[in-house]
């Protein structure tokens, strides 16, 4: 394919263009230096078609300067971007994210450069806007349970944000270390670290953090008033590398936090995220009769089953002191395996 020239893409500056099949656009993107020396920011390139049309976005990372001849690699990339790109977006998404843990990532410096190619399969001209950003942008962690993959070096942080748009929702965040070891930290500020986090999990290998809907933290940070005023509340998540390099998957979900009514002899099926729990309540009519709680596990391990007799109002909306009843339970069971 032919190119329509080369343009310099400045960070934070929206540029407009138009492209059609067989006529690609090339951009050179040199990221701005991070505010703190040694920081490795994620970089996002977004391309948005105007008035319909599908676009393709490809990127390669190159090191320029003395001793680096990039011409051959760039020519190869321009001729066949699908085969030689380090990053690509071709499936309907309009954003490409280059993360510090990616194999071809290069940190911002006087010799680092990213080459971008915008193309389309449309025979008609497709107008578009393209924008690049780095540094302060934090990747959104979806709450649908679908994991994101990443990599992190020793003592490095990769950060995410989890947006909560409804009250009375548990927040479950699970981290699976595929290679190496990394730790999970959760806080209420964008610069969350191991030192200032409110919640953490530093188990070897895989980790999980669970924020109960009725916990003191969630009542304060994600109250009905906060969500009504701002439209959402946000928890910030940090993955910190422990090993020299760790590959991981991270996922988040938001189970309904309102206790579920459970009738006598009723069976309910439930899938629990790692480290989480679910509240049920059973209405007891005097005189009290013997009660049996039965649980069967299809897979995994259920750590505990706990029950406590409480007034009905507290059963439907547990106060903070009943969020964790492990030391107050009237009935206890533990270690159920599938």
Q: Summary?
A:
With 338 residues, the protein is mainly β. It has 2 domains: 133 residues, Jelly Rolls; 115 residues, Jelly Rolls (Sandwich).
Structural class: mainly beta
Contiguous helical run count: 5
Largest sheet: 5 strands, mixed
Q: What would the principal axes of the Cα set say about the shape?
A: elongated
Strand order within the widest sheet? 1-3-8-5-6
What percentage of residues falls in helices of 4 or more residues?
A: under 10%
Number of strands: 22
Q: Which CATH class of the largest domain applies here?
A: Mainly Beta
Low-confidence regions: none
The CATH topology assignment of the largest domain is Jelly Rolls
Q: Whole-number radius of gyration?
A: 25 Å
Give, in order, the helices and strands.
EEEEEHHEEEEEEEEEEEHHEEEEEHE
* Strand portion: 35-45%
CATH architecture of the largest domain: Sandwich
**What's the pLDDT, averaged over the residues?**
82
Could you tell me how far the N terminus lies from the C terminus, measured between alpha carbons in angstroms? 56 Å
């Amino acid at each position: 394919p032919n190119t329509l020239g080369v343009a310099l893409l400045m960070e934070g500056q929206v540029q407009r263009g138009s492209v059609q099949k067989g006529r690609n656009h090339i951009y050179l993107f040199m990221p701005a230096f991070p505010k703190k020396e040694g920081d490795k920011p994620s970089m996002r390139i977004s391309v948005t078609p105007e008035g319909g049309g599908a676009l393709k976005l490809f990127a390669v990372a190159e090191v320029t300067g003395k001793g680096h001849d990039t011409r051959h690699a760039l020519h190869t990339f321009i001729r066949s971007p699908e085969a030689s790109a380090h990053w690509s977006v071709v499936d309907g998404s309009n954003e490409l994210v280059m993360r510090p843990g990616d194999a071809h990532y290069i940190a911002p410096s006087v010799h680092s450069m990213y080459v971008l190619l915008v193309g389309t399969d449309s025979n008609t001209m497709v107008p578009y806007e393209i924008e690049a950003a780095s540094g302060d942008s934090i990747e959104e962690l979806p709450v649908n349970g679908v994991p994101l993959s990443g990599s992190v070096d020793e003592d490095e942080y990769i950060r995410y944000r989890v947006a909560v748009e409804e009250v009375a929702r548990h927040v479950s965040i699970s981290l699976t270390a595929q290679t190496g070891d990394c730790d999970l930290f959760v806080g209420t500020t964008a610069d969350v670290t191991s030192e200032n986090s409110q919640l953490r999990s530093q188990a070897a290998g895989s980790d999980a953090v669970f924020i109960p809907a009725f916990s003191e933290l969630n009542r304060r940070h994600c109250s009905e008033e906060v969500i009504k005023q701002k439209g959402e509340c946000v928890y910030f998540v940090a993955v910190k590398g422990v090993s020299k390099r760790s590959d991981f998957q991270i996922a988040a979900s938001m189970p309904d936090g309102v206790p579920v009514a459970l009738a006598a002899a009723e069976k309910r099926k439930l899938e629990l995220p790692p480290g989480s729990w679910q509240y049920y309540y059973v209405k007891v009519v005097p005189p009290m009769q013997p009660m049996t709680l039965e649980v069967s596990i299809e897979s995994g391990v259920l750590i505990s089953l706990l029950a406590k007799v409480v007034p009905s109002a507290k059963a439907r909306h547990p106060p903070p002191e009943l969020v964790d009843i492990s030391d107050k339970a009237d009935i206890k069971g533990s270690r159920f395996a599938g």
